[in-house]
Design goal:
Blueprint (H helix, E strand, L loop, with lengths): L4 E5 L5 E6 L18 H6 L9 E7 L1 H5 L6 E4 L5 E13 L5 E2 L4 E5 L7 E6 L10 E3 L14 H4 L4 E5 L5 E2 L3 E12 L2
Antiparallel strand pairs: 1-2, 3-12, 4-10, 5-9, 5-12, 6-11, 7-8, 7-10
Amino acid sequence: MSGDQIIFEDDAGIERLVGTLHMQPTANPGDVLTVQQDRSIAAAAGGGGGGGVQVVTVPLDSADILDIFNTPVILVAGTPGTMTVVVGVSLVYLAGVTPYTDHGGSLVVGDATGTTFDWADVTTAGFWDQATSQAFIPQPNTVFGALTAALAGVDGLDVVLQQSTANPTLGDGTLSVTVAYFSAPTT
């Protein structure tokens, strides 16, 4: 049991590593067990800063995709006292039986408002409206160039995936989004 990982599922159904269980061999029945987070695990779970580059893969099912314009999906949860710096993103679309009907626009990896940072745009036409599975590795968006923002504006921001214009319709494929990032302190 010692060394077992502790995982929790957040409100979005995403499993996150939050700690490792360490038990002393002298533990007696009824003893109180204390679980602690270390900084690298906290960073992997979207908390704490430090820990180097972290990688998270977020799966989206058809219901998530069909509502992606109305309900952005959190890829990396922001933490007060840190800013999340995206290093790279990949998107893998696994086609289902019915391709999505695309209504223009793009999938955007950025902040929920779309005004502070916009790391990548993926044109959805030719992506999830295809009958075959697709992969996309976007380059950083050059529309905004280098990000210069008030520190208070980036502190604790979530990194989300959202559609820029409208929800797709029909379709039953799935999408996996992998984000490489690190957390930098803002205090």
